[in-house]
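FAQ: What does the model actually see?

It sees only this:
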Amino acid sequence: MGHSGLSRLRTELTRDISPGRAGRRPSKKCEPAEPTVLPMELQVGDRLANETGEWEVIAPPYGTAGGRIVHARVQRIGEPDSWAIWNWDVSKRISVGRASGKEGKG
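And it is asked to produce this:
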């Protein structure tokens, strides 16, 4: 059994690469539709979505539990009385909708 297994391994290691594909790397055009950020990188005005609708960050994020948990105050778009505080693990990336450029910055 040892000899045929070695032969198969040798074939896999010496497999030819066609000239058209040699040296090419796959393109990185598969970027997510929305950027992902760490929770501490959230900015006022960023938009988040969940099963209850679309929300907007209305206050800068802050950390607790020795910096392991991040909190941010959010509100439903167009409903100022609907604010809530959302929590995230500091190392988990989240999808946000972010205005391009420096809109809203003084």
